[in-house]
């Protein structure tokens, strides 16, 4: 008896990725195959308390052995391929690579697209390039990243498949800024990672220090203690009591509550990053500042979203900047519903997964 076709979704050890995506993927009725989920354990003695049934793996060798033990009809989708513990290198010469596909999150792409220094970095790029070219299909989150993947890895026909904003907590409220007299609450960055360019952002916002504002910076993951202390010191120096740093981890509900509370976000990434914040702001019609030289800005602008350029922030009168955070954008909220919600993206994900089983 021929086994039922099965798709295995393979995730790294970040619950902020695999928990919402598992819920999203299992909710798609148009998917015609059985879905299973594999999650990486960060350490050997880690006990994962998963809210869904899943297999865990630790190393690349363990992962490949588990994959090869399954029927040849099984297909695999990597949600990011970050090469932790040499996972990518295990697919260099194995035929199973032809049954694998990958959705590039961004970090694994941008680290290779920049100038590569050192033997280890060059070798890692070569390995990623070979493996991704052996994979069946490769996708990126937007058109700019897709072209960058083609240029970086030499993989032809990289597709575009965005992740949806997986939350029921963000809605457009046309009366959300009725009380314009309250302090304007601005979110700066999305994590403590230096790629947020916190120092630059705080300096760009310095002219607002005398205004009725609140600055909140999530600094709870992605950097070492010294970096966090440096940014906290600068924020307090410029804005005093108007600056708040979040240094403890927030669960999803608390983080979503924070995004509901702020009046807009200012991001300084030089690449596609922080999409959860960007999507939340757009869905609620709140203003978001992005660098205009990023693929995120280019892609969203092509879809006719109205964005603000972080690079131009210091050239805008401070009164106008504050006024921007006091307005809501109904058009952005409508465009978001058409492009990035679960309902909008479910058919595209179903088509991708189902197509992996067609000859």
Topology, please?
Blueprint lengths: L5 E6 L3 H12 L7 E7 L14 E3 L2 H9 L6 E5 L20 E4 L3 H7 L5 H16 L2 E4 L2 H11 L5 E2 L23 E5 L9 H7 L8 E6 L6 H15 L3 E4 L5 H10 L2 E3 L8 H9 L4 E3 L4 H8 L5 E2 L8 H7 L5 H10 L2 H14 L4
Parallel strand pairs: 1-2, 1-4, 2-3, 4-5, 5-6, 6-7, 8-9, 8-11, 9-10, 11-12, 12-13
Write up this protein.
With 359 residues, this protein is α/β, with parallel strands linked by helices. The protein folds into two domains: 6-164 and 342-355, Rossmann fold; 184-339, 3-Layer(aba) Sandwich (Rossmann fold). 38% of the residues lie in helices and 15% in strands. The chain is built from 13 helices and 13 strands. It has helices at residues 15-26, 60-68, 107-113, 119-134, 143-153, 198-204, 225-239, 252-261, 275-283, 295-302, 318-324, 330-339, 342-355; strands spanning 6-11, 34-40, 55-57, 75-79, 100-103, 137-140, 159-160, 184-188, 213-218, 243-246, 264-266, 288-290, 308-309. The strands form two sheets. It has a seven-stranded parallel beta sheet with strand order 3-2-1-4-5-6-7, with helices on both faces. Strands 10-9-8-11-12-13 form a six-stranded parallel beta sheet, sandwiched between helices. Helix 6 (198-204) runs parallel beside helix 7 (225-239).
Could you list some keywords that capture this structure?
transferase, 2 domains, Rossmann fold, 13 strands, 6-stranded parallel beta sheet, WecF, 4-alpha-L-fucosyltransferase, about 350 residues, alpha/beta
């Amino acid at each position: 008896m021929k086994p039922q076709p099965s798709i295995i979704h393979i995730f790294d050890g970040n619950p902020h990725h695999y928990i919402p995506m598992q819920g999203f993927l299992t909710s798609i009725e148009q998917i015609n195959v059985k879905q299973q989920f594999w999650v990486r354990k960060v350490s050997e003695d880690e006990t994962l308390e998963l809210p869904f049934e899943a297999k865990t793996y630790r190393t690349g060798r363990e992962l490949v052995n588990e994959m090869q033990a399954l029927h040849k009809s099984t297909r695999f989708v990597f949600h990011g391929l970050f090469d932790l513990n040499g996972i990518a290198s295990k697919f260099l010469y194995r035929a199973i690579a032809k049954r694998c596909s990958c959705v590039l999150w961004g970090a694994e792409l941008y680290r290779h697209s920049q100038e590569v220094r050192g033997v280890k970095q060059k070798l890692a790029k070569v390995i990623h390039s070979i493996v991704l070219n052996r994979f069946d299909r490769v996708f990126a989150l937007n058109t700019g990243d897709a072209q960058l993947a083609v240029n970086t890895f030499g993989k032809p026909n990289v597709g575009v498949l965005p992740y949806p904003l997986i939350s029921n907590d963000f809605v457009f409220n046309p009366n959300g800024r009725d009380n314009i007299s309250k302090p304007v609450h601005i979110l700066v960055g999305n994590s403590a990672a230096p790629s947020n360019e916190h120092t630059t952002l705080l300096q760009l916002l310095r002219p607002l220090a005398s205004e009725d504002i609140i600055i909140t910076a999530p600094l709870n993951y992605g950097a070492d203690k010294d970096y966090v202390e440096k940014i906290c010191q600068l924020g307090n120096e410029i804005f005093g009591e108007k600056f708040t740093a979040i240094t403890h981890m927030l669960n999803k509900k608390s983080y979503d509550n924070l995004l509901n509370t702020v009046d807009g976000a200012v991001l300084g990434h030089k690449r596609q990053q922080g999409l959860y914040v960007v999507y939340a702001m757009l869905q609620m019609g709140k203003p978001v500042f992005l660098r205009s030289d990023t693929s995120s800005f280019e892609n969203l602008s092509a879809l006719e979203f109205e964005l603000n350029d972080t690079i131009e922030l210091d050239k805008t009168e401070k009164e106008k900047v504050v006024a921007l955070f006091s307005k809501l954008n109904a058009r952005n909220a409508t465009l978001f519903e058409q492009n990035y919600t679960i309902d909008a993206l479910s058919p595209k994900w179903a088509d991708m997964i189902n197509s992996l089983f067609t000859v």
